[in-house]
Amino acid sequence: MTEIYKKYFNPKILSRVAALELKARQVVAGIVSGLHKSPYHGISVEFARHREYVQGDEIRHIDWRVYARSDRFYIKQYEEETNMRCYVMLDTSESMLYKSKKTTKLEYGSLLAASLSYLLLQQRDSCGLVTFDDQVKSYIPPRNNPKHFRLMLRELELAKPGMKTDIGKIFHDMAERIKKRGLVIIISDLFSDIETTMKGLAHFKHRRHEVIVFHILDRAEITFPFRDMTLFKGLEGKGDVLAEAWSLRDGYLENFKKFEEALKGGCLGKKIDYVQMITDEPIDLKLSKYLTARIGRRK
Amino acid sequence: MGFTILNPVMLFFSALVALPIIIHLFHRRRFKEVRWAAMEFLLKAEKKTKSMHKLRHLLLLILRCLAILFVVLAISQPLIKTPSLAGLKGKASNYAVIILDNSFSMSEKDGSNKVLFDAAKEKASEMVGLFEQGDSISLLTFGKKAKTIINEPTYQLSTVKKEVESVKLENGGNDLGGALLLAAGLFKKSKEVSKELYIITDCQATAFRDAEKDIKQVFDEIGGKVTIYLVKVGKKNPGNLSVSNVRFSRQLVDTVMPIRITADITNYGKSDVMDCVANLYTNEKLRDSKRIIIKSGRTEPIAFYHRFSEEGINTGRIEISTDAVAKDNEVYFSVNVRGAVPVLIVDGKPSRKRFESESGFLSYAFSPYGPEDAGKGKLIASSVCDYAALSQPRLNANKVVVLSSIPYLSEEGLLSLGAFVRSGKGALFFAGDLINPQYFNAQFYKEKSGILPCLVGGKITPKKEGDTFFIDKVNLEHPLMAKFREAEIKELKKARFAEFFELKVDPSDPTTTILASFNNGMPAIVSKQCGKGNTIIIATGANRRWSDFVIKPMFLPWLYETVYFLSTGTEEQKNLKLGEKIRKVLPFGSNFTAKLITPDNKQAVFKSSVSAEGRVLEYSDTNDPGFYKVQVQDKNDFYALNLETKSESDTERVEKSYIMRLAPKERFIYIGEEEDARSKVLQGRNGIGIWKELLLLAALILGAESYLAYRFGKRI
User: Fold this and answer.
1) Nearest residue of A to residue B42, measured between CA atoms
2) Which ipTM was obtained for this model?
3) CB contact under 8 A, A251 and B715
4) What Å distances lie between residue B682 and A141, B135, B688, CA to CA?
5) How far apart are CA A45 and CA B205, in angstroms?
6) What confidence score (pLDDT) does residue A230 get?
7) A220 found inside a domain
8) pLDDT band at B262, cuts 50/70/90?
9) Do A234 and B39 touch (CB under 8 A)?
10) Residue A66's domain spans which residues?
């Protein structure tokens, strides 16, 4: 267990992201008080800010003291906070085994999943883990127990890559299974039919979950650096292609770009955070950059 | 239109066309394997580009195969037979005339130290090798003169090859025109249908320009009927220096005074020569060296001063640094060196007082520092005798006799004087006070056999008192008068003559020459060749009463040069050009055998005849430059034979365009020095070679293939 711990509990990454926080941008339901906006009123009342009075506001919320000082009507706003239920969904299909250098997409994704889980648990949110290929392979429901992290790590380590992937179907299943709204983090290369994938993501949004997509890619998948005669053996049993790689490059890059643009555009349209992660990029840098940007957007 | 292949064996290499296909297949078998995740995109791309890619591949493969095919075709040397050439050769036998240039310019060495003539012979043998059984050949050469080596066409090709091998390089000029005329005559006689003319030459510009008229005439005559191949040997003008025209500053070469020996060095190259070294050798010893700068196309004289120490025949040569043509880097000379000239002054009225008699002026002129310095390193040693005391022994002790105002001579004296002059010595007459023209003429002038150059007439005096005569015209073509420069001639003309004897020259006598004339047109000085010797008469006496000539500054040089001229006599010409005759006259009654040794140390045989001079020995086969030694008893005589360098040393070549301008429009093939003569000849016989075009096509295809491969690959 210690070895697994060492593998996923990367102090360099965690020290870099520990100072940051992953807060839900929309209200989420939780059991304990936390960082995120609660859908409920009255349980925990905390002054948030003043807002200028507009017609229709309840008069009882007017801050008379401010009125006395400034001769203007300001409404006193209160916020309630709760903890967040977060689901980290890691794609373990065969396509995630591709690597052009030393790290497979699955290894990279697992490390990302572990880092995010640690971060969430540290900020006293509940975090769960889902691994899937063409079906849900394992499901650890969200908890905010520190022991829970070890359980998640063991599950990440034991995750065996499957054959095919059916992302759309899995997303629909999970959207139905998760009752309370929370944060859904998807870690996958998303090499599946783009339409069904987008429908699956839309389903999460429909269930009022906040969704972050970490799109894990290998550098070779973006640049297609092959030139010579090459036999491409398809992972997930998608067939083989024997060709002079240079002759396919243009077509491949065109298709890939279309896929990437459709994915980005779809996420943007559905207010889903899309983060492209390439396996040769340091996780800590990329993750801290994303989290910093996210905090900025929140303010 | 037909198609022939000269090297059909090469067509086996057409199997190489399969090479790109094999490489392609081999290439397809060599691939690396990649396990790939994003297969959807790849499959879509493959589906879209597969057919286009196959088409591109096929196109490149076809281009590669075509390039190989064209290269193989090119090396197999295909020929297209045009209708005009078709059937020309057929089964008819060939008659060819080979003209081989063996002129001296062919002795040039190329960059690899190979003599052009050897290269020309190799080409000729190669050409002979292209004939088949039944073909016949004649062989001509053109050195100094065109020669027929094989006149009657021979069917023995091996004989032709042997004859080609045995042709030797000549040291003469270039008679291309003569050789072409001979060839035209041979073609006229021949009844063969197919005729060929081969001219193997270095294309020396002077040879072609000199023979341009003959070339045009022959080409017009045989053009279109005879296939002419001009095979060029030798590359561009390599540049050449030649040394020629050796000459001496005076006629009399003696052991007393140094003599100036001059030769001309000509630079025939395109660039200046900054450090040409010239060496003077006499009797095979290096005497002097000089450096000289010679600009391109210029001729510069180089002069050496040398005093010969040995009397008799001396040999020498001037040698310059070696270059591509070595033969014209030396010029040889042979010179008869004499000691001081003994002169006998015979006076008609001698006197003890120095300037009272004519002999007084003359002896003072020969010994200006007094009688005590006579014979001490002097050029002339004079003595005086009375005309009555003249005898044969007294005469024979001298080389020149000066007869001043002689009224008469004894019979013995007269005979001795005639024999003296004819043996190669000289006599100078001053027509002085004591001369009785009638008696004088009767004694010394006999038509074409006497020793007096002309008849002496009466005294000529000026029409007005106080008027004088002066020398007005000088014959500068005569070797004696040619010695004087313009200033000296002017000085000579300053002498004033109070009176003189009329000299009546026989214009029909070829042995007589007027050297100078008075202002009234009458001869002043006349010379005559008598046997081996010469005589000269001056129309006045050698004292002040006749003229002031004896006290003029020019009297001394004129008298000295005249004595030198008379002392040399008329010797056999020892410095000759190649081809000129070596002539040696032996006196009657001598039973000596003469031996001739050529420059290559071989003994040669003289042609002997008899003439009025004596036994005449002649040798005309003088083909090699150098010294020809003539041994008579134990005495050696040397003749220097030199090249005629004027035209042959010039290594400038004519351009191809010049030759093509003269050439007939049809059936003329120019074969450059670096071209494959064999292929060109076969092309001339069989058709037009298209291998260059095929190679060009192959290169273009390869270019297109590279461009397309780059374009297709650029999409990466």
Assistant:
1) A252
2) 0.76
3) no
4) 96, 15, 9
5) 119
6) 87
7) yes
8) very high
9) yes
10) 46-79
